Amino acid sequence: MNLQLKIVAISVALLIGCSPNTPEKEQSIGPITLVIHGGAGTILKENIAPEKEAAYLKTLQAALDSGFQILAGGGRSVDAVIAAVTILENDPLFNAGRGSVFSESGKNEMDAAIMDGSNLMAGSVAGVTTIKNPIQAAYAVMTKSEHVMMIGAGAEKFANDQGVAIVDPSYFFDSTRYKQWQKVKLKAQSSTSLLDNVTRDKKFGTVGAVALDRYGNLAAATSTGGMTNKKYGRVGDAPIIGAGTYADNESCAVSATGWGEYFIRLNVAHDIAAMKRYTNLNLQQCADSVVLKKVLALGGDGGVITLDRAGNFTMTFNTAGMFRGYIREKEEAHVFIYKE
After folding, report:
1. 227 closest CA partner among 95, 32, 330, 320
2. Which terminal residue of the chain has fewer beta carbons within 10 Å of its beta carbon, N or C?
3. pTM for the structure as a whole
4. 197 with 105: CB under 8 angstroms?
5. Has 259 been labeled as part of a binding site?
6. 80 located within any domain
7. Known binder of ligand: residue 258?
8. What are the strands, taking DSSP E only, across the chain?
């Protein structure tokens, strides 16, 4: 290379922020890790009976066990987050799958998304009413179609064609959720406030998981029944890649729960990942900056779980509590509900 070309090469290398002829530093890979959440909100110990608290903790533990068993056996992070979220979708305690809340029209309309941090592949479904486990349909969209998002009847037909379990909508009926909806609906009918029509549930039961496998690959998954008494066709942040769900090996994996409109407007999941990738802030600082500052500044609330390739993770929320837990290689599992 002559002197003039060498000068140009060095100038370009400096311009894009790297040293010429110096390979990018490899990011260290941390221990296999799984982090989960089951929603954030006004979750206070005095409002939850001891037996119900025990039931929440039991299911959170089961979700951790299910996902971590896959990681410990050499499985992929994508499979681990699906396993964990499926357990949470099957428990009516959580606002996802069988425990999904009711929309204004009296339906259970569910959303879910998954993303593979190793290749940025992603899949999601929204507004589905007959798919037993929406997270499994989202995975089918990611792996068996050329698309990222499918909605409504089309998503249901595709899921059925791919062998994903389909059930009658009555499968999702839960008496506790129905009573909650009736209460919210009555309040909305007697109020002139638009916000009362989609009143906060005191807690957001959206579920999610992020995982790091032994190969250094990250994945994120999120599933939700949305917001009680939501308008027809309303979609929250959970199935929107970059808003409620995101994973990239070069930054981190994120799954969110909260008032979806604010998380969409702020592109919360991707904002945290971008901050991690392009600044010198650590993962906790990135999550805190977005959830504890930006979301609150707009008037929103909720939380996130995040995980990077080095095994660092956060369980950050700006509410009174968040159902959450984590497990790492050679460590005991830990589950939590309240701010502690």
Report:
1. 95
2. C
3. 0.90
4. no
5. yes
6. yes
7. yes
8. 33-41, 110-116, 121-128, 149-151, 203-204, 207-212, 218-224, 245-247, 253-258, 302-307, 313-317, 321-328, 334-338
Total residue count of the chain as it appears in this document: 340
Total tally of structural domains belonging to the chain: 1
Q: Using CA atoms, how far apart are residues 143 and 166, in angstroms rounded to an integer? A: 19
Task: State how far the Cα of 146 lies from the Cα of 311, in Å rounded to an integer.
Answer: 31
Q: What is the Cα 156 distance to its own chain's centre?
A: 21
Residue 156 placed within a domain: yes
181 is in an annotated binding site: no
Binding residue per annotation — 257?
yes
Q: Is residue 271 part of a domain?
A: yes
Q: Are strands 110-116 and 218-224 parallel, antiparallel or unpaired?
A: antiparallel
Whether 235 has a binding-site annotation, put simply, is: yes
Is 228 known to be catalytic? no
Residue 260 assigned to a binding site: yes
Helices and strands in the chain, H and E counts: 10, 13
Structure-block tokens of residue 235: 């979609």
The parent domain of residue 170 ranges over: 29-338
**HSE-up of 50 (CA within 13 Å, CB side)?**
0
Catalytic residue among 206, 222, 245, 306: 206
String of DSSP letters for 53-107:
HHHHHHHHHHHHHHHHHHHHTT--HHHHHHHHHHHHHT-TTSSSGGGPPP-TTS-
Structure tokens at 115: 């993303």
Task: Output the domain CATH number for residue 47.
Answer: 3.60.20.30
Asked if residue 3 is part of any domain, the answer here is: no
Per-residue pLDDT of the chain in tens (340 residues, 90 and over written 9): 444 434 334 343 433 343 333 333 456 899 999 999 999 998 999 999 999 999 999 999 999 999 999 999 999 999 999 999 999 999 999 999 999 999 999 999 999 999 999 999 999 999 999 999 999 999 999 999 999 999 999 999 999 999 999 999 999 999 999 999 999 888 877 654 545 444 454 456 799 999 999 999 999 999 999 999 999 899 999 999 999 999 999 999 999 999 999 999 999 999 999 999 999 999 999 999 999 999 999 999 999 999 999 999 999 999 999 999 999 999 999 999 999 7
